[in-house]
Queue: 4 jobs
Job 1
Amino acid sequence: MWGITRYQWLVLFAAWLGWGFDVFDGLLFNYVAPNCIPTLLHLPLGSAAARSATLFWTGTLTSLLLVGWALGGILFGFICDRFGRMRTLLFTMVLYALGTAACAAATNLTMLAVFRLVASLGIGGEWAAGASMVAEVMPEKRRVEGGALLYTAAPFGLFLATGLNYLVAGVWFANDAAQSWRYVFLCGLLPAVVAFTVRWFIHEPERWQSVKERSQARLRQIFTPELRRRTLLGTMTTIIALAGWWSCNAFIPVIATGLARGEAALRGFDQAATLGLVEQWKFTATLCFNLGGLIGTLLTIPLAKRLGRRPMFAWYFGASAAAIFATFGLDMPPAARLYMFFLIGAPVFGVFGAFPFYLTELFPTRLRATGAGFCYNIGRVLAAVGPFIVGAAAARGTAMQTIFYVGFAPLLGLLLVPLIIETRGGALAD
């Protein structure tokens, strides 16, 4: 199919699993935060103090995750170029699996933050290894398809996290909200099992093998005159996308929880019925966001190949701003607002389908993981400000009013579009 061999599909599938579980482990906290944070702070679930603390600490810990993600992406990008794509992929999968599972044993927020930081290092490092491996193994004419298909693993990871959280917290342990979040975190061990299975079937890409003897990757090399502009523009493009994605996605469970509790109060629901509605609405909002993201990810293929990289980014940034302003600025029933997350997901989530192929096109093989890993992850340090500000502001008001202003981030991205480097029609440089 598409001129892709069975082994090339296998490599894509291995990287796809790595990235899907990467997202899965990275976002489990956002689902359990409304129960986890009040429990660790010894606050009554559903109280005003619990809601305020959840908003603030969701933003704070999400920002911490992004900082660790950035550090892991830069560190393991360098390691990936020096020691190999496959080794780095498997090691980072095990690292984020163990870090996430350890969160189940947390007895206070400090322990939770430390374990999240460990997991975030592996989460950040996995992307550069998987994206580089796919770019180097796929046929030149199918690099865009390979990169976009790789990112469809992100909706898979979100679907899996949503489904497992719903089953664990909403069905199996629905009457034990103070402890159900621990079982959700334990599900983070799944990627470690996958990693040990994958290692028997794939090997290092021949393209990397051909340069490994002369590969002495250094971070400063991506700032040489020939690569500096590519590095800076690649980084700025991801910062815009990351600020929008994390500021919106990190607060989907929090917004859905607030909407559900308001609806439950109007209907006169008791505590058990309210918790059930909360889990249902979190599932619905996240499902809509994921479905939109999946479609948006696949749209990067025709947009990138027919229009080019620059017009593609212009379309996604413009649509992101419009969707955010409409969802959080227009007056509509609470249930209808849940489905609007589909319109947000298509551009805000979908634009990330372009980064696996676009960022790897900017750098030669000997610096591919280092450069792509830096661009994709250093932006998280700056993007980390977004969830922190949203969380702190939302704790003093309403999350929806705060996230409305996130729509100005992709508007700034439109100003960047004319400077974006066009790579359509070019081959990977060795």
Note: The chain has one domain: 6-210+218-419.
Job 2
Amino acid sequence: MLVTFTTDAYADITMFGDVALAMLKMMGHSATVPGAILAADVPAALNRLSAAIEAGEASPTAEDAAEDAVEDAVEDKDSDEPAVSMAHRALPLINLLAAAAKAESNVMWK
């Protein structure tokens, strides 16, 4: 499954479902797809996601699920590739949320 985050203030961001759901939970939202954050609530969601990433609070199950999804998509010959951290995966979504907060725009995902 893929999840696409959209706002009028930034380009769409598409993520693997497991990673997107983990980030939604870090923002304090349920893992319901589709969903939305009202413009007034975007700064708080951005703060919660940033704090969780900085504190390394990404739950082990969420990181394991994200890594498993990546491993399933990669053939054995590429198994020596380094795993992409949740902090790196979160950067596009953090940028989207920051732009939406600045423009006072809603954020939706489907």
Note: Residues 58-63 have pLDDT under 50 and may be disordered.
Job 3
Amino acid sequence: MPELTTDADLRRVLGAARTIAVLGAHHDAERPAHYVPAYLHDQGYRILPVNAAAVGKTLFGEPVRASLGELKEPVDIVDVFRRADKLDDHLPEILGMSPRPKLVWLQLGIRNDAFAAKLAAEGIEVVQDRCTLAEHRRLLGG
């Protein structure tokens, strides 16, 4: 599966998704890792925050999990707010999810072609270097 880049593909995945795990979710409302998932939550998505440093907190009505492996329900999108050089650390978590997510979305400024290729080889669609908030507003009029 190639990297998704067309408006039609982005509209399709954002329109079909209902549950988004946010890897690197943050409690500081000034940070993109907070206000982007907050926007998505306001648009009706269920947001499952994941951040080992924030366990014990609640964000978007959900407890913060330490890892993706703690999620026991299906996730449509894993929305990633982690530096590109840290992504390989999360590959086993993503591939170990059951069921696996349909899509891994790397936020604006995050690109790792080797990581994306590994996900694609496992049948997981990938978006790189794009903001879910901006793309949702642009394509779905949020």
Note: The chain is about 30% helix and 20% strand.
Job 4
Amino acid sequence: MTTTAALLRQARTRAGLSQRQLAQRAGTAQSVIARIERGQTSPTWETLKRLLAAAGYDLAAQLEPQVAVGSHMLDDVPRILAMTPEQRLQEVENVSKFLHQVRRV
């Protein structure tokens, strides 16, 4: 995972800008850029987007599911793998019926 400080520093250096030049482009003080890059302060999402845009970059985010390592959800895997295809289909049907009932409540 990349930190905000590293992300801003990387964008700035790739753009070939000094902290002062980036600050001028973004309409802020060089000390703000320095504090962010040192990890002394965390900018808001909007501020980070503005600073990255001033360096010529867009900020995009996406949701990704977390790996369920150590989760109780994995405890059921051996039981499911031991089922026949027909039993698995029955299991899916049962879960589907359950979810349908829960949504109606």
Note: The chain has two domains: 4-54, 72-104.
